């Protein structure tokens, strides 16, 4: 079943209202704890790489406003950006203010430069673009000059300018370096790639994150669309219904969410109907360990 068919069936059953911003009417979105705290996060969010990098033209921004409304109205809150992502921070700041959603979002962004002064200047710019007095999670993008920025971020966390700090990367080749930082430094979050096709994070980084009480954001869950290409023209196996899976997007995301170390997955999208479908992965049952193995075997064929 593709996304469109699934959404049509939900509408026919009265489980969502298309006239009220694509809103689920039953069940609650899965939440996971931010380790070491009493705070919980919705387990499905949205990334902004490429998708939110648009100009000031209204037709370009309207679908993104609908994405943000869909996220929040259906129990989500996490949105992730970066200065690397073009206009994305500005678009998030503008649209969340227009929609009066700023207080309902868990905003994560990054520092992506070298040098203490340059890092401080870039992060201050992010505060301005995002229209935030406080940023929920500031991350060091791809470990760039992490020693310098981590020192700044510790101070800012003590001052209350940022609530949580972390590091990110998107390639398995960086796992050695990430592991060393996790072993040596107190962190609140890591952000890393993990999917049905890229599973090494579960072998190395996830156990260490659980041991160190570091929460995990997952990027690149769809392998930049490669997973959808792999299953093009096919339908999910019937046994996927056992864990309430109604589309390929949910198949891929439920595999990720079924790992207990994962706090939140942040697939990017510019389409509200895809945002709704992604959120559906956080509803209902998740795959068991055996079903996870079956999913890997299935995708490898």
From TrEMBL:
Transmembrane segments: none annotated. InterPro entries: AKR2_Oxidoreductase, NAD(P)_OxRdtase_dom_sf, NADP_OxRdtase_dom. Residues 44-289 form the NADP-dependent oxidoreductase domain. Gene3D superfamilies: NADP-dependent oxidoreductase domain. This is Aldo/keto reductase. It comes from Chryseolinea lacunae.
């Amino acid at each position: 079943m593709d996304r469109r068919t699934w959404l049509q069936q939900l509408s026919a059953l009265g489980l969502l209202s298309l006239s009220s911003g694509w809103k689920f009417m039953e069940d609650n979105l899965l939440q996971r704890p931010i380790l070491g705290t009493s705070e919980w996060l919705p387990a499905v969010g949205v990334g902004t790489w490429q998708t939110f990098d648009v100009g000031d033209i209204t037709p370009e921004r309207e679908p993104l406003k609908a994405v943000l409304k869909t996220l929040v109205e259906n129990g989500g809150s996490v949105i992730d950006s970066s200065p690397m992502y073009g206009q994305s921070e500005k678009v998030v700041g503008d649209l969340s203010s227009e929609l009066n959603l700023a207080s309902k979002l868990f905003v994560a962004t990054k520092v992506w430069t070298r040098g203490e002064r340059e890092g401080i200047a870039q992060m201050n710019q992010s505060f301005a673009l995002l229209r935030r007095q406080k940023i929920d999670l500031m991350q060091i993008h791809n470990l760039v000059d992490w020693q310098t920025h981590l020192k700044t971020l510790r101070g800012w966390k003590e001052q209350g300018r940022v609530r949580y700090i972390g590091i990110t990367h998107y390639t398995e080749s960086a796992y050695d370096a990430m592991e060393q930082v996790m072993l040596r430094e107190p962190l609140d979050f890591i952000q890393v790639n993990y999917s049905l096709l890229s599973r090494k994070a579960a072998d190395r980084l996830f156990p260490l994150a659980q041991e160190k009480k570091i929460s995990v954001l997952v990027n690149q869950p769809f392998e930049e669309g490669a997973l959808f290409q792999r299953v093009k023209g096919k339908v999910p196996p019937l046994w996927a219904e056992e864990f309430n899976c109604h589309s390929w997007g949910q198949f891929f995301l439920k595999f990720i969410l079924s790992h207990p170390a994962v706090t939140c997955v942040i697939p990017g999208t510019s389409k509200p109907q895809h945002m709704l479908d992604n959120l559906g992965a956080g509803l209902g049952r998740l795959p068991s360990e055996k079903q996870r193995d079956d999913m890997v075997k299935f995708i490898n064929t």
